[in-house]
Amino acid sequence: MNARFLMSAAALAVACGSALAQSNIRFADTLSANDTHNQAARRMAELLKERTGGKLTMSVHPAGELGSDGAILEGVRLGSIDIALTGNPFFTQFAPRLNVLDLPFLFRDAAHAHKVMDGPVGEALLKDLERNRMMGLAFWEIGFRHITNSKRPVRTPDDLKGIKIRTTPNKAHIEAFKLWGANPLPMAFTELYLALQTGTVDAQENPINNIYANRMYEVQKHLSLTGHAYTASIVAMNLSRFQALPPDHQKALREVAREAGLHQRELNASQEGENLGKIKASGVEVVDKIDAAPFRQLAYEPVTKTYTDQHGREIVDQILSTK
User: Fold this and answer.
1) Quick check: pTM over 0.85?
2) CA distances for 223 relative to 191, 215, 312, angstroms
3) The CATH number of the domain where 298 resides is what?
């Protein structure tokens, strides 16, 4: 009897040791499995398994499998989901300073945005998430946003008047579209395709790769390359879960998140032209020569002032001075 008990105890100890030696983390987002984010997430999972010798693995749950953007962020804060990836605008409810990244016409180009997010400004902004039980691992990229709609070609702000446009739940985006005369309606990304299809909203704004990967060209007639704002995406982990990992696994997670993010940016750049061509071929009318000046004149100063009145000018000036 004692021998059997000892054997059972030994087996239990081996099982527990195996469970402790290997751990899986769940990564969730709302984007298509074919989106560059999920291509990069799968790369991140491969790198993580490799760097930790299989002791830490990661399962990827795309396309809203674990809920909407708001739900997966709340899941990360509560610890029911390990890692969430979504656009920066969704994080601003927890860390309002992050809203600076969404100001219209703030970034000169993608290279400027990357330097800001990969430098001291980006580090400081990610640090803000820790007060809300999240560890910011890396900035990835959604990209420069453009407008699609089912009503008419948009060439000037006047063309947006009265158009119902889905936006993120982000103060900067909402204020900008109001200034341009549109009716912004914040809505979960997972609900957007059906809302466009049924006419609940007339329009939406996203980068070209998102528009293509999520098949919005099927339910929209016009695309205008306004490039009115840049959007980063953030990979964030439950803070307690991160801190419970051994230091070498923490280091590996941060490294592979950043490496996968660089890969994702490269995918975005390489696929954008091809995807734009496919959108045109689908029959969507593309307005590719936009005078951005009227859009900027109406929105840049007032939206930036709304931000600086609350948070000061320091971080805006740091971004503008980044070369």
Assistant:
1) yes
2) 20, 13, 35
3) 3.40.190.170
